[in-house]
Amino acid sequence: MQSSSHAAGGAALPVPRLAGHFASLEVQNHAARLGMWLFLATEILLFAGLFICYGVYRFLFPEAWAAASRSLDLTLGTINTVVLITSSLTAALAVHYAKEGKNKMVAVQIALTLVMAVGFLVIKYFEYHHKFEIGTLPGRFYSYEGIQLPGVPLYFTVYFCSTALHGLHVVIGMVVLAFSMVRALKKADFGPNNYTMVELGSMYWHLVDLVWIFLFPMLYLV
Amino acid sequence: MGIANESREEEQNMREEHHGAGRYWLIWGLLLVLTVVTVLTGRIHIPTWGLVLALVIASTKGTLVLLYFMHLIDHRGANRLVFAVSILFVLLMLAIPLVDLGTRYRGATPPGSTYSDLQALDIGADAQEGRYGGAIRKEGKMGEESGAPKQ
């Protein structure tokens, strides 16, 4: 998108830039979107690896899995799910307004998304903090006397690996969306022909939401 | 020629892509309802089918996010193909190890291939640590069995 140094056609408008090797802007946008889908496919496979760990160890230690998942705070988990789904809505609305060229609204919606993302991380911090206090930690650091079953530390290994990787994605998504927000405020050049940046950032954010939609019932409910 | 076709097709795809914002709110509402459903059914702890039900609900929610928030419903061709293939491989990746694991019987497993045979791998940990859900801590509890936690 930005790699090209020349604007094809030499039009007065600086945005959106069309790289010389694309037939048209639509094709260029299509290529950007396809690249994003390919990247998201690798992300899905990355998380799938953790889901397989979950599946295998759940199969080996069903009692430990049931007991350990009940030790999590369902209320906090549910609040976090609602927060993330709502942040996905505002991210989708940001793309909607970007297409209409309402840059102020784009910035507002992304700001709301970022606020909810921070909320998600704060709630996650409290959950982690509680686990460190009572000692439901992975591997040999597990020291919680309330649940003593073989395999419980493995549950918390899977729990911490998957939620921490997800949390990292939340942070990355926040950075990506923050760039779009700054651009919407400073350059205010999003419009019907130029919204790919918001769209791809928002797609990343929806992936974060998507992963949580699966992690939440797997870790907290069943 | 190919590029021109792609361009025209893409234009056609884009034309119907812009909808009112109402659709997003509707999907948001549906996602919240499904979240409530999954929490309520999850709290009952239905034996056997609880996991299946939770995964069906999660898949439904995921499909809504993919189709409407991520606009997969407006996209055609390559984007859908990429996604479908990745889901196919996730399912294969899940199914094959689980089928392998589920069809083993103990007599066929060599020593060291089950978790209870393993020694703690952490450098600096001693052999018993963490074997029984971490009941045995380093200080002074070494000889005891894991079952009864000390008050």
Computed CA radius of gyration of chain A, to the nearest angstrom: 21 Å
Oligomer: heterodimer
State Rg of chain B: 25 Å
Largest sheet of chain B: none
In short:
Chain A is mainly α and 222 residues long.
Give a structural overview.
The complex is a heterodimer of chains A (222) and B (151). With 222 residues, chain A is an all-alpha fold. Chain A has one domain (24-221): Up-down Bundle (Four Helix Bundle (Hemerythrin (Met), subunit A)), CATH 1.20.120. Helices cover 74% and strands 0% of the residues of chain A. Chain A contains six helices and no strands. Chain A has helices at 25-60, 62-70, 74-100, 103-134, 152-186, 196-221. In chain A, helix 3 runs antiparallel to helix 4 and helix 4 runs antiparallel to helix 5 (152-186). Chain A is elongated. The termini of chain A are far apart. In chain A, 44% of the residues are buried. In chain B, 55% of the residues lie in helices and 0% in strands. Chain B is mainly alpha-helical. Chain B has helices at residues 2-15, 22-44, 49-69, 78-102. Chain B has one domain (2-108). In chain B, helix 2 packs antiparallel against helix 3 (49-69). The relative contact order of chain B is 0.05. At the A-B interface, helix 1, helix 3, helix 5 and helix 6 of A face helix 1, helix 2, helix 3 and helix 4 of B.
Task: List descriptors.
heterodimer, A: 222 residues, mainly alpha, Four Helix Bundle (Hemerythrin (Met), subunit A), 74% helix, B: 151 residues, 4 helices, 55% helix
Task: Give the topology, please.
The complex is a heterodimer of chains A (222) and B (151).
Chain A: H1 25-60, H2 62-70, H3 74-100, H4 103-134, H5 152-186, H6 196-221
Helix pairs in contact in A: 1-2, 1-5, 1-6, 3-4, 3-6, 4-5, 5-6
Chain B: H1 2-15, H2 22-44, H3 49-69, H4 78-102
Helix pairs in contact in B: 2-3
